[in-house]
UniProtKB/TrEMBL annotation:
Sections of the chain in a coiled coil: none
Protein name: DUF1697 domain-containing protein
Secretion signal, residue range per the UniProt entry: none
Stored InterPro entries: DUF1697 (IPR012545)
Organism (species): Streptomyces agglomeratus
Amino acid sequence: MTTTYAALLRGINVSGHKKVPMADLRALLTGLGHRDVRTYLQSGNAVFTTDADASEEALAADLERALEERFGFGVECLVRSGAYLKAVADACPFPAAELEAKQLHITYFSQPVAPGRFASVDQTAYLPEEFRLGDRALYLYAPNGLGRSKLAEVLARPSLLKGVTGTTRNWNTVVKLVEMTSG
């Protein structure tokens, strides 16, 4: 069965660190046997189609190994199906159509995250910023953008994310990845 996936690479091409040219990423994914490989922006978003009968976790592990072999440094990756990306976008608890894309973000997690993990975060202290948990995802409404978000700083604390890989995308990227992995 052919499935289209998005690979979400964490922390590449930021301030000159962990440089992964998108042409090299496309070549690497093609070398792993994937087809129809495309990238979006320079921040580690790739879409590919595969017939491989492998889990998202196995596809991510293969990509992580290949990246380390090719570039000499580790890159955490998440691989998610187009159907999953669409379901997460459709389940957004905030009125995405009414907001600017810079105000809405999704952090995709490597595994389900129980609400208790964030119980110590007093959401009322950060209003009007808000977050909600979804299926291996966290939705963040930051009216002044992610760069100015105090709530985003708190949610990214290593103590809250211990043992979980997370990578964040703004709403424009979320929508584009859903489009790229559909049909």
